[in-house]
Amino acid sequence: MRIVFFTQEDPFYVKIFFDEFFKHYKHLNEVKAVVISHAMGKKSVVDLGKQMFSFYGLFDFFRMGCRFAYGKLMSKRDLAKDSTGTIPKTYSIKQSATVYGIDVIERGDLNSQDFLSLIRQYDPDLFISVASPIIFKEALIKIPTMGCINIHNAPLPKYRGMLPNFWQMYHDERAIGITIHEINPKIDEGRIILQKHVAIRPNETLDSLIKRTKRIGAHFMIEAINMIKAGSVTYLENDPEKGSYFSFPTREDVKEFKRRGKRIM
């Protein structure tokens, strides 16, 4: 199998998924490339900053900003395995993939003819989206022989859309859903391959919950890949009419979240 991942350069949470996946997937030579797009798609740095400030508030925004700046600085370093093959600490998805010898492609024009020609050269069997900010169009979806799949931290078709961990905590769910599903031209509507639930711990913050479910999600993805390889997938319905959709939380949503006794950090 030849696998290509699609993602965005998020050092806070998405990188946790890849570190866990790279460490535990027994056939890592099957991963031929990781395609990294600009975080949050077409948003400018200023607009993204404003959105994050509104979400985190002054103090937590400063904390996250310091973490981001440090990670950005450290991610410029050239890293390699030492003589014993030990994997060094990395600070970006690009660094992590490079250390494991996986090609990194930094592109945002995933549906362009130029990119389609490039990615076909990998003769891919499976595309995997992990927080990719780009909506896949039909021409891209049709390239891999075994399909395109995505991981979404919600019990689809419920909680489609943005930041599902936040909304599940907001609505006092006892567990977070993790769904791996096929990709089609619509958002979070492809057939379900695998769906599991992870209990929310008492007094857990959103930050710790996202980190924990990213690690767990990497293992679920390994399970889903093995199911696809074995041809043992039993697809489940993913009808958007029976679910719900949420956009990125507003400042008022965050205030209500905290009023209900929840914590971001």
Would you count the extended β strands for me?
9
How many DSSP H or I helices? 8
Strand composition percent? 15-25%
The domain count comes to 1
Main beta-sheet annotation: 7 strands, mixed
| Unreliable runs | none
Written description of the protein model:
With 265 residues, the chain is an alpha/beta fold. The protein has one domain: Formyl transferase, N-terminal domain (Rossmann fold, 3-Layer(aba) Sandwich). Helix content is 38%, strand content 18%. It is built from eight helices and nine strands. It has helices at 14-24, 45-74, 93-99, 113-120, 138-141, 164-170, 206-230, 251-259; strands at residues 3-8, 31-37, 103-106, 126-130, 148-152, 160-161, 175-182, 192-199, 245-246. Strands 3-2-1-4-5-7-8 form a seven-stranded mixed sheet. Helix 1 (14-24) crosses helix 7. The radius of gyration is 18 Å and the shape is globular. The N and C termini lie far apart (39 Å). The model has no long low-confidence stretch (mean pLDDT 91).
Quick take:
The protein is α/β, with parallel strands linked by helices. The protein has helices spanning 14-24, 45-74, 93-99, 113-120, 138-141, 164-170, 206-230, 251-259, and strands spanning 3-8, 31-37, 103-106, 126-130, 148-152, 160-161, 175-182, 192-199, 245-246.
Q: Helices, strands, pairings?
A:
Layout: E1 3-8, H1 14-24, E2 31-37, H2 45-74, H3 93-99, E3 103-106, H4 113-120, E4 126-130, H5 138-141, E5 148-152, E6 160-161, H6 164-170, E7 175-182, E8 192-199, H7 206-230, E9 245-246, H8 251-259
Parallel strand pairs: 1-2, 1-4, 2-3, 4-5, 6-9
Antiparallel strand pairs: 5-7, 7-8
Helix pairs in contact: 1-7
